[in-house]
Write a structure and sequence with these properties.
Two copies of one chain form a homodimer. Helix content of chain A is 42%, strand content 21%. In chain A, the strands form four sheets. The first copy, chain A, has a five-stranded mixed beta sheet with strand order 6-5-4-7-11, sandwiched between helices. The two termini of chain A are 17 Å apart.
């Protein structure tokens, strides 16, 4: 939620509206009196603000709660479909979009193959996939949240630099906003994933790092309850941190980046080399599950190097919640365990002992994260972290 | 500055007071009309708040500015000595304390040797050094800010775990507050250094990392204009991140921590070994300046490993301002240059190309940082970062 840096009357009202709305959203079912207690606002202010939110259809009454002596209080809630979110994941292989409720439930989805598209074609395809869900939405749309790989200016929705696509200074946000006349927000896919876990996931933490491991490796950082992008939106781009300059060449042109050790591409290259035959990712997963010792050892080594990077991250940020996601997460607990062991071995005990490592339980994490990006910006809604 | 999470009338007033005070502090000399424009508050609110601040002696009028047609406006400022700060640096070798103005000027200082003290003796010595400056202060004291090495709970001023001293769960903040009946804030020394650079230094950046390199190595992180401590106050404790587990044993019990490569102790051990005789730090500095190739190469190697760690930090946070400080900074530009080269070689170009590396120009950085800790908490004062 935006701070009240300029406490004008208008902004004070907007601040109060967001505070009341967030309190009702977070409370699930809550009386006006309880909203006043939680927010510190007066009963009169709360009633005024609630009236406005009801007129806007963002808050509804849902019956009466238990009486505590006097009249049973009217309970308020934010209906799950008071507004609908469009969440978009412009992935390397597939462009997906969905209509999502304010609780992160997907009610309609579209996915189109996108592996071979680039340039104007890829933009057209993105507008196409978004158009399909926008026209299918059966209710008031709040706007569109988009996630894509690469360096993205979240303030204006420009893709500064893509990863697998040649996107450079692409004004994706304004292209989509112009087409659909809706508010649009764009963020990097890993940053969106972190926001998705923070807003719709089960981890209610003030600080949280989500690391997506697939063809690329990058992290999204929630620090003090906010997405942290750094000075130039690139925070979390750990995939091209050099782990060992004497190791293999990376697609970025340097040697021994984290991706050359711990990505899906890295384990496939290493497994193929050791097995003496090319192997697909699905085959690698099948061999891993059958207990193939070569593949298991390759995955273990990849997880260990990732753990070294994660250990450095814990030593720097002292963040206790690390969530791993992405295609590599299919290797499950053995992979997670190796990451955790290596991370703990690398960071100071007093920092790493309490760290909790998990694999994200959310399907469609990036797409839901894109929806969360929209929702937090437009309405300021998210579950309160437990401290 | 604290966000207005609970917008009660009382807190709104306190918020406005802090906003107006910070605007006048930051402006240097500023009229009421300009304060209203900058803050977005009404002229009436600004006048009310300024009256209160004048009665409290925090704001003074300093004559009239140039007329822009009508009556020449009265200019306001925050007098440098409107309140006095006590800043304390409980270092490994020396306990220092000073009376500091609101602009970070030291007007009285005391330093006592503390190398051999521990336990109750060291607490007594700390109270002693603080008492000397408190009684010498010639003006209204705002409170006491304290910095010490180790893991420190900044919310209640408890030293959770010291470094060279055996402090464990030491309620330093409340011991000092009880003795002097003043507000007291305590933070880790590197975190204080970062705040000192942010509040009193020349770098007006929203994100800033200060890395102190001496016997120990640790960083202080200013993220989004705030000191970031992580989930357990340990953010920035990079000195015991393992860089190479096959390397030398560290005092922490593990092998190959950053400190074993890049600290003052590391370069002394390595130089002594290569020179075949024990060498002190002052001798090493003299040999370095004379161009001794052994010492120069040892310092270069130490800087390179530090640069690897800094490269990881940039890759994770995309922070563009890196300030180096502490005893190792005496090796100046050659050392700084080697850190920079190694950091740039390790992080993705698009992230590291714009990063500015400097050595802190502030003497007494930790002590001034402790004063800044007090000032930001009690008055919300700091220079506005340029964006």
């Amino acid at each position: 939620m935006r701070g009240l840096l300029r406490a004008t009357v208008h902004e004070a009202r907007e601040h109060n509206e967001r505070l009341v709305l967030a309190t009702i959203y977070d409370g699930g079912q809550i009386s006006r009196a309880e909203v006043a207690r939680t927010t510190g606002l007066t009963r009169t202010t709360v009633s005024d603000v609630v009236d406005g939110l009801q007129r806007a259809g963002l808050v509804a009454t849902i019956g009466r709660g238990p009486s505590t002596g006097g009249k049973a209080p009217i309970l308020l809630s934010v209906p799950d479909r008071a507004r609908l979110l469009v969440g978009v994941d412009l992935g390397d292989r597939v462009f997906s979009a969905a209509v999502v409720t304010l609780r992160g439930e997907i009610i309609h989805r579209v996915a189109l193959p996108a592996e071979q598209t680039d340039g104007e074609d890829s933009v057209r395809l993105a507008l196409d996939v978004i158009g399909k869900v926008v026209s299918a939405a059966n209710g008031p749309l709040l706007g569109i949240g988009i996630a894509a790989p690469g360096l993205i200016d979240t303030t204006d929705g420009t893709v500064i630099q893509g990863v697998t696509r040649s996107w450079r200074q692409l004004p994706l946000g304004s292209l989509v906003a112009d087409r659909f006349s809706l508010p649009v927000y764009v963020a990097n896919d890993s940053q969106a994933a972190a926001l998705g876990e923070h807003v719709f996931g089960s981890v209610r933490a003030l600080n949280l790092v989500v690391i997506k491991v697939g063809v690329g490796i990058s992290a999204g950082l929630i620090l003090n309850g906010q997405l942290f992008g750094g000075d130039g939106f690139g925070a979390g781009e750990i995939g091209h941190t050099v782990m060992d300059p004497s190791a293999e060449r990376c697609r970025c042109g340097r040697w021994g980046c984290l991706e050359t050790f711990a990505s899906t591409g890295a384990i496939l290259a290493r497994s193929s080399e050791l097995l003496g035959r090319p192997i697909t990712f699905d085959e690698a997963v099948a061999e891993f599950e059958r207990g193939n010792s070569v593949v298991r050892s390759v995955v273990h080594d990849a997880a260990t190097v990732l753990g070294v990077a994660v250990g450095g991250l814990i030593g720097l940020l002292h963040v206790r919640r690390i969530v791993l996601a992405g295609p590599m997460a299919v290797f499950g607990d053995p992979w997670l365990g190796a990451v955790q062991t290596a991370a703990r071995a690398r960071a100071l005990g007093v920092l790493a002992d309490d760290t909790v490592f998990t694999i994200s339980k959310m399907d469609d994490l990036v797409m839901l994260g894109a929806s969360a990006l929209l929702m937090t910006h437009e309405l300021g809604l998210q579950l309160r972290p437990s401290m």
